[in-house]
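Reopening this ticket.

The earlier resolution said the output was attached, but the attachment link was broken on my side. Pasting everything inline this time so it's all in one place.
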Amino acid sequence: GGGGGGGGGGGYSSSSSSQVKGALIELVKQFLSGPWKEKIISREAFKTICKKVVDKVLAEAFPGRGPYPGKKEEVSRFLTGGKRKEVKALVEGYVTKYRT
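Inline output:
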């Protein structure tokens, strides 16, 4: 596992963004676990892709940096079918780009 860093700043409560971020990271990791197990991407690439995809999805979904869904139900509603497809496509694109 390993911890996550802090970060923050930016006016409002960033706590809700970290929930969305956390959920997104988990999703990205699921999509990356295949290529990772097959040694298609390195550990560094795994981390880079994770960060890039999460940042990109959040920036596009919340251009004004919020308001982020705060409740668990809202977060899971945010990550429904269409958004999952989008995340998967992004991950696949980055995997192709960063493959070893």
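Reporter confirms the inline version is readable. DSSP finds four helices and no strands in the chain. Confidence is low (pLDDT under 50) at residues 2-13.
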